[in-house]
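Can you give me the bound-state structure? Components:
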Amino acid sequence: MTTPDVSLTGRLEVGVNTRARKPMVPGARGKWGRFIGIIVITGIVLIPIVAVVVLSLTPSLGSSATGFTTENYAKAFTETGVLTWLTNSLTVTLATVVVAVVVAAPAGYVLSRGRNRFVSGYSLVLFIVQSLPVVTAVIPLFILFAQFGLVDNLFGVTIVYVGSTLSVATWMMAAYFDSIPITLEEAAWMDGTSVLGSFTRIVLRNSLPGILSTAIFCFLLAWNDYLIASVFLKSDTVKTLPVGLQSFFQQNQANWGLVMTVAVVMMIPPVLIFALLNRYFSVGGIGGSLAGR
Amino acid sequence: MSTETITRGIGRARRGVGNGGAGRPVQFKPSNSNRMPGHRSRSTTLLLFALPSLILLVLLNVYPVGYAGVQSARNGDLLSAGDFVGGQNYLTVLQQPVFWHAALFTLIFTLVGVFGSWAIGLALALLLRTRIPANGLFRVLLLLPWVVPIVVSATAWNWLVATPQSPLPVIANFFGLGNPLFLADPTLAQILVCVYKVWISFPFMMMMMTSALASVDTNVYEASKVDGAGPWQTFRLITLPMISRTTYISWILMTIFCVNDFPTIFLLTGGGPVQSTQTLVVMAYVTVFQNYQTGPGVAIAFLMTLVLVIISVVLYRQIRKVNIE
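Here's the bound-state model for the whole set.
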């Protein structure tokens, strides 16, 4: 047999015409086999997530209820701090999203349109910053924030989140702005529009998908963060869901129903966003979010 | 959307700077800037645009790293700066066998995390590319481990393995494998943490690989079939080379994710039993916030930071090179 790669190159150049769009498909024969295979794989992969939901609906020990019940939910909202944690998480997360997007959008524009030494240095710094461990920044920030009473304070945590989302958020905005042709702006400049004007009226107006992906990324990072919250938030009244769930779990190891109920509450917002906006769900963004953690 | 952003982002990293809109990639001549309203006012505006982000970047990223460098040479704690002790903290850290164990486990954890999730992600991407009923649904469902917060999934995994009555030990017992306690046995805990990491990360790889495979010209497969190439040959000689760039980028990203990963390990095992699942990040955290040895803890974090800065500068250059070729 001849070496396949050589003959392949030949073929490529000739450009064999074919209508087959999914060439690896061995016909319908294996279709149901693969179907069953993927069902089994998905089933196994999802066991932990299904377990969370099922356990939250299972009556806890000593309960008179049988079958599925929502009594854990009633109990969680009255007897645990879940409502406080949820409010705190939402506050911190939304504040982070707004501030990060507002700061990152103009910076991303500079990164996208500018072209000089300063901008390429800035680009390199952003790349380095997003690959550094958060632990390194958290310790000095803790010491610094302690002096200003920003420890054990939702405002302080929000600032840290903005800092840790900013580099990737800027990068994401810049990547999106790259896809908007500069010719549109040039036409506006000819007509005497300022850079600020062309940025807000042309670039931003056409960047909703980019803004949404960036916002989703910031939302997930702030919502899911455990490390920063565990260092900065100690009192029960300022805890966010991740630290709230973790401390509640450590105190109530055996009460799986209640623990998993809190877990479901925490899981709903990201899953909802994913279900509704998965078009804008950017791998890069989420990727970047984990880069820090 | 999905991987477009990252590909573009990497694209700009490769180019080094912005390209001034996709319409006209690199030919952004200096004369172009004159078309912008008033050269000087334009620079001022751009500087003002960048200013808030620059201030925050310096305050929240650059300053802490610098401070960590200084603090690693002092014997202070979280409340006081302490005195200068030179390389004492580094010496203490480097002489601990625990540190070298953590470094080794970081390496193992990263290798398993990167290549394990890549292999599974690629296999699933290939499988879901074939004709399967409702494969769009499976594609979405399989992303859930990545979407669900780690605090939640760590709790779920805890439920799976924590006690002898948990599902996994019970199943193992049923098959005559004894009654393994995953969180009490060092080796089992290490395996568990690695498997958990792969479980979290494979959806990311699946997304990356799916988008890479989508851009492969399907005519090539027809051609290779005509030439009598088998499935394995097709995969090794056509598919793999054609998705090599995305593969390389996803390896880089996943390496950074794994090395810096804190919650995956901390929430499942806390670094135990007997520090067997401690990576460097976990060790730095535990040293500072649980053992209150700020100096040595910061030294570990700063060592990691130095290594990562070097690695990321090298990778940044490397990414640019890959594009030029």
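A couple of observations. The CA atoms of residues 45 and 151 of chain A lie 39 Å apart. DSSP finds 14 helices and no strands in chain A.
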